[in-house]
Amino acid sequence: MWTGHATGVLAAGAERPDRDLTAWPPAGATPVDCAGVYDDFAAAGYHYGPLFQCLRAAWRRGDETFAEVALPQDRATDADHYGLHPALLDGALHAVGLAVLAQAGQGDTAPQPRLPFAWRGVTLHATGAAALRVAVTPTDGTDAVTLTLADGTGRPVATVDSLVMRPVDTEQLRRTANAQDLSDDSLFHLVWTPRDLPTVPQETAAWAIVGGDTLDAADALGDTPGLAVKPFADLTSLADGDTLPPYVLADCTCEQGETTTVVREALRRALELVQGWLAEERFASSRLVLVTRGAVAAGPEEHVTDLGAAAVWGLLRSAQTENPGRFVLVDVDGVESSWSVLPTALEWAVEHDEPQLAVRSGTVSVPRIQPATPATAPEGPAWGEGTVLVTGATGTLAGLVARHLVTAHGVRRLLLLSRSGPQAAGAAELLSDLEELGAEVSLVACDVADRAALAAVMAGIPAAYPLTGVVHTAGVLDDGIVSSLTGERLDTVLRPKLDGAWNLHELSRDAQLSAFVLFSSASASFGSLGQANYAAANAFLDALATVRRAQGLPGVSLGWGFWEQVTGLTGGLTTTDVRRLTRAGMSPLPTAQALQLLDTAQRSPAPALLPIRFDRLRLNRPADPDAVPVMMRDLVRVPARRAAAAGTGPAESASTLKRRLAGLDESERGRALLELVRTQAAAILGHTTMSTIEPGRGFVDLGFDSLMAVEFRNRLTTATGLRLPVTLIFDYPSPEALAAHLHAEIPLHADGPAAPSPAAVSAELDRVEKTLEALATDEIKRMEITVRMKSFLARLGDATGTRPPQDMDDDDLESASDDELFSVLENELRKS
User: Fold this and answer.
1) Alpha carbon distance 502, 500 (integer Å)
2) Average pLDDT, stretch 692-713?
């Protein structure tokens, strides 16, 4: 059912406004002191966030009010996405609020806040304003005003013939706000949605399979029509083969065994496989398809059955982010129809840029982030009935959660565990705060990854106050791109997450828990750049929650976005790191909202949830669409049209770039590619213009780090269509050097720039002929000219769709006379 909140009529044709705001401030207007005006507004019932505090100056003249409003400097570019930015329009109405406050000073009774009720005669004359001059004139008593809005030069931006204001009951607003769950639009989960595949005749294809002893994929795929499958023992034997197929399948299922050992072994094998694949240049034109079984729960009735493979998915999601187009993840159910549909599914996935698939009974599904199902239970767990155990307890988030459990849920007994215990920084303050709030607290030094130590601590919980809740927040970071990770760096991150969570799971299995909460990370779902080990560890937590639910035990894993509150894990985030997150549409979670999401999650039927605050503006109008993960496509509203990018816009597509390069001469192409490199470098560094990127200065000197280098490489890969190495900025250490490399590489592609003009061809032929005549006796120079001839013929063929004679090889060209060479050129030009 749709609920109507407003109606309106849109009409064309409007005259320019009569009012002129060129002279500013208007003659006879008296300045109004705006210092503390938003405190005064708050006292009167108006509360504005930082973005909406746009009022900069104001004047009054009789019953008229004039004002200057402007967006915050760091949000000024957002104005380009709107006809008139909502915060700026709202700021214009603050001039009306000034009139209300002025009335308040004339009497003893505080005025009721007034809100816009009816707009008439609204006309937009210009778009993209980031600052406004505003004139407000009452028209009908105190309930209606006219508005004139102009830019900083006085040119008209918008006019409103009549805006009727109505008083509002602030107490009613307060009750409505309190009743609304702040987490309604910030709690998501991963949903697998089916996709229809095209029915096309299967062409003969060749695949390779690496390993496959446990999956038996070679046997399963062996009977697929049109598919020739060849098994290889490992990547080394594959690299030694004569031909390389477009898809190479690798078995990532796990054998039975002790869980933490199995998971570690699975991750080490997967890491070795990924690093080997990326290190072999010969594999660059193929995709490695990692096949699992039971790694994801692709439906409401499913649960994870392979925890090791689930962790591998987290690792590979980061590998996919860092290396677009190199890996595909597929989880199969082993049914014959699923194997038979796999060839078509992979072709479809590559065409539609879907790097992750789940195949169930022949049906292919893809992951999508969607709002979580509304809570099914009216109340959350009874936290306060016994003892609640919190790990990582001296960390920032754990401290906030502990205080919240006491104040919001009445918890009176807390068992806090951390590796440093009472010796940790801030421990004494935390204990004092909790005890003042009325809780009995034990803070113990215990490494939850040490099973024996954890068991001893849990055995000491008084029988009168048994364990009723667990919150596992412990975690550490050791960031680095996937090609730089080692087994030791995996262990560093896995120990608190994997070992700690598994120990808590097993040791509390027989306790009558009402809550078992795992603090995971959105990196497990999105595959954060440079966090493959962290994503793997958190993917294990998400899977463990589904396992617990399947066993009838409480469990929820929360894949947090980043909190506004600085924590031990996020304290190291640089401005660039935060900018990378916000480009994907994420905003920091305020602490109060995050804690409310924690409560809401306990009532959700989903075992793994994503508490993330999205910036709706950036999400629906992304500055860089390539930065928005594929799985968020259901949340993103693609703009009907996009204005031409200026400054540091999104990376353009390869076809767009090549069309732009078509017809340019060599020097113009060089300048265009240098501009591309500098523009994308500026975007990565957060600069508003490429002018700050000196062509000859090194990327490292400009401020690039390893993660920036990967993101930069990915943007240029998208823009050029070239397969660029992860070491790009080290191989070509300045914008100038990199642009020259791109200049040399792009024309070699078949869909490169168009043929040169006839005049340019004639000039080139004249130059080649004169050079041949001058150097005909110099065999070394003659060989150089031959190479240039071959390059020229290849470029001509690429541009025109023709090819040089297939029977002409290097020896033919090198032994040909001048007349024979020019005969070849003449024939090719005639065909072109």
Assistant:
1) 6
2) 88
Rounded distance between C-alpha atoms, residue 267 and residue 173, angstroms:
52
Better-predicted residue by pLDDT, 579 or 354: 354
Strand order, beta sheet including 131-138:
30-32, 55-61, 64-70, 131-138, 144-150, 156-167, 114-124
Structure tokens at 399: 């401290």
Cβ atoms of residues 444 and 489 within 8 Å: no
Report the alpha-carbon distance of residue 254 to residue 266 in Å, rounded: 6
* Separation of CA 368 from chain center: 13
- CB–CB of 147/69 below 8 Å? no
When mean pLDDT is compared across 20-24, 29-33, 36-40, 680-684, the lowest value belongs to 36-40
Q: Is the pLDDT of residue 326 over 80?
A: yes
> In this structure, how many other beta carbons lie within 10 angstroms of the beta carbon of residue 629?
21
Distance separating alpha carbons of residues 482 and 319, to the nearest angstrom: 6
What pLDDT is stored for residue 253 in this prediction? 85
Cα dist. 277→235, 239, 244, 558, 706 in Å? 7, 10, 13, 32, 20
Q: Parallel, antiparallel, or unpaired: how do β-strands 227-232 and 467-472 relate?
A: unpaired
Whole-Å CA distances, 574 to 14, 249, 569? 48, 38, 12
Q: Tally Cβ neighbours within 10 Å of residue 572.
A: 11
Looking at residue 398, its amino acid is A
Q: Say which amino acid occupies 638.
A: V
Rounded to an integer, what distance in angstroms lies between the CA atom of residue 135 and that of residue 150?
Answer: 9
Can you list the pairs that 166-171 forms with residues at least 24 positions away whose Cβ atoms lie under 8 Å? 166/114, 166/115, 166/117, 167/112, 167/113, 167/114, 168/45, 168/112, 168/113, 168/114, 168/115, 169/112, 170/45, 170/112, 170/113
Q: At what angle do helices 654-661 and 666-685 cross, to 10 degrees?
A: 140
